[in-house]
């Protein structure tokens, strides 16, 4: 990612995510964004994922793979969605807010990964660097690059991603899937 955020921009986005998370969980209006106070990078279209953890365990993660609004709006929206709309978890309760840790991942645009066969796909994946999107018709799923820390084996990574997509874990071995990769600029509280 060539156009990296400054430390000040990262702090602003984390503060915005925290304020939005707390307001959303408490049923209050989200903090207003003052476009004049935002840097060009924060006003520019951007895609992000907001990951919430509680005592090191995943508590919610929601984001966008491609930009459709400003980066600041995207982080604000996904902080609330990660707390209240991740179907894998019950909504975050106000009494949990002090235990929630926020991580923001700013994504590059996904690019198709051309590969010949399963072995070539494995050879081209870059653990710890690439986020991966699998698509099979209308189904799709992604893992952020940070997931490599928990699933460092490339085949196991793809098995789990197929499962997340709602397909048999070995689908990537039996069928040529659309594979896209992206990178992230990740920062956290």
Please describe what this structure looks like:
The strands form two sheets. This protein has a four-stranded antiparallel sheet, with helices on one face. It has a four-stranded antiparallel sheet with strand order 4-7-5-6, with helices on one face. The chain is globular. The chain has helices at residues 7-25, 40-43, 71-84, 118-124, 154-165, 171-174; strands at residues 47-54, 57-63, 100-107, 111-112, 131-136, 139-143, 178-182, 184-188. The longest helix is centred in the first third of the chain and has 19 residues, at 7-25. Helix 1 runs parallel beside helix 3 (71-84). It is α+β, with helices and mostly antiparallel strands and 189 residues long. The chain has two domains: 7-107, 2-Layer Sandwich (Glycoprotein, Type 4 Pilin); 111-183, Dna Ligase, domain 1 (2-Layer Sandwich). Strand 5 and strand 6 (139-143) form a beta hairpin. It contains six helices and eight strands, in the order ααββαββαββααββ.
CATH topology of the largest domain: Glycoprotein, Type 4 Pilin
Distance between the termini: 21 Å
CATH superfamily of the largest domain: Hypothetical protein ph0010, domain 1
Taking pLDDT < 50 over at least 5 consecutive residues as the criterion, the unreliable ranges are: none
Q: Which strand-content bin applies to the residues? A: 15-25%
Please, how many domains? 2
- Main pleated-sheet profile: 4 strands, antiparallel
């Amino acid at each position: 990612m060539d156009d990296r955020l400054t430390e000040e921009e990262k702090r602003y986005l984390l503060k915005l995510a925290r304020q939005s998370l707390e307001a959303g969980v408490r049923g209050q209006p989200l903090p207003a964004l003052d476009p004049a106070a935002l840097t060009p990078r924060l006003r520019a279209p951007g895609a992000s994922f907001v990951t919430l953890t509680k005592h090191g365990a995943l508590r919610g993660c929601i984001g966008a793979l491609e930009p459709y609004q400003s980066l600041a709006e995207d982080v604000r929206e996904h902080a609330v969605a990660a707390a209240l709309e991740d179907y894998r978890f019950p909504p975050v309760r106000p009494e949990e807010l002090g235990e929630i840790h926020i991580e923001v991942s700013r994504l590059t645009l996904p690019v198709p990964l051309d590969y010949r066969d399963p072995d070539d796909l494995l050879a081209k994946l870059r653990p710890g660097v690439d986020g991966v999107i699998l698509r099979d018709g209308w189904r799709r799923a992604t893992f952020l690059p940070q997931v490599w820390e928990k699933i460092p084996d490339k085949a196991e990574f793809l098995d789990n991603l197929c499962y997340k997509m709602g397909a048999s874990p070995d689908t990537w071995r039996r069928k040529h899937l659309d594979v896209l990769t992206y990178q992230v600029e990740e920062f956290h509280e």
